[in-house]
Write a structure and sequence with these properties.
Elements: H1 3-6, H2 12-20, H3 28-38, E1 47-51, E2 54-57, H4 59-69
Antiparallel strand pairs: 1-2
C-alpha cells in the first residue's frame, strides 16, 4: 500500500505528527498506526526502512508530505 492510499486512513494525530516532524524517524505510535492501516505492508516508494533511530520514510514520502503540508496540488505534473 502506498502513501496515497494509507494517508487518509491513519489518525489525524498521526498525519499531524508526520507533517510537524517530517523526515524524522517514526515513533512507535505513528509506526503502529501506519502498519495497522496497511496491514503491515510496506511499499518501497514510501518506505526507507529502519535506521539506528527507528523506522523512516523515504525521501519521496518526505517530499510528498511536505507538499501536503504546503497545500500544493498533488495531481499536477
Amino acid at each position: 500500500m502506498n502513501i496515497l492510499e494509507w494517508w487518509p486512513l491513519v489518525d489525524a494525530e498521526t498525519r499531524s505528527w508526520l507533517i510537524e516532524h517530517n523526515g524524522e524517524p517514526l515513533p512507535p505510535h505513528v509506526f503502529a498506526d501506519i502498519m495497522a492501516v496497511t496491514g503491515g505492508r510496506t511499499d518501497s516508494g514510501w518506505w526507507a526502512g529502519e535506521s539506528a533511530d527507528g523506522p523512516q520514510l523515504s525521501d519521496q514520502a518526505v517530499d510528498w508530505i511536505e507538499a501536503v503540508a504546503n497545500d500544493e496540488d498533488l495531481t499536477a505534473g
